[in-house]
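subagent[fold] <- orchestrator: predict structure for attached chain, return tokens only, no commentary.
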Amino acid sequence: MRKTMDGMRSCCLTIAGSDSGGNAGVQADLRTFHAYSLHGCTVFTALTAQNPNGVYAIEQIPADFVAAQLDAVLGTYKIAALKTGMLGSAEVVYAVAEKIKGYGAIAKVVDPVMIATSGAPLAGEETRQAMEKVLLPLATLITPNIPEAEVLAGIQIRTLDDMRRAAKYLHGKFGAAVLIKGGHQARNASEAEDILFDGVEYSSFVLPWIEKPVSTHGTGCTLSAAIASELALGRSLKEAVKGAKEYVHKAISNSYLVGVDCGVLK
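subagent[fold] -> orchestrator:
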């Protein structure tokens, strides 16, 4: 565990929604932070009633209460890195951006949870516009999946060259490093490849596609939480992405059943 010069241990913060099944969201993030031996702080943006079969209800947390949670942890805990997940509304996006913009030393991993890999929308147009205007420009790294990258960049992504082009465009637009997650494309291939552009060079991260895993629910949340954890421990961005991708690959490989048709990453 990394300690700062004043002897305090580093913490990670998740700003995201809950998952009552414990697979994704804040619960997945805390599990990941703890696996890295980091203390995890939480800011809840939404409560969900869900399991691996679907989301049955969502209760949005008011923006002022999200802001109050941020006030309670920022500046009090030694937060070295944070990650955002599902934010749910434009009002919450603005509240989060306003609170974190003054903490430049904190590494910020923004998972723009807008579109599921299935193509299902997870955020409305107003929320997306708010993210583009005030949150993504604050990010150290943004981690869109391919459907999200297509919306943010305004291009179709069919090839690795398309992924590189989109990553470079998004870096120019928001000033953040960009990791485009290509994992869902690997369903028709033998490998899962992600593309990182840090403003200077491209890096490719490739691992074998796992056949018939017990669970993949929460992999996006887990990846962004693992990257934040790696950054909190002092890794470079490229090292952090590599280590996080390996962590998620192992978690999928070791996933196990905890109920009828309910698996969880390990």
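orchestrator: received. Logging for downstream: The radius of gyration is 17 Å. The CA atoms of residues 6 and 78 lie 10 Å apart.
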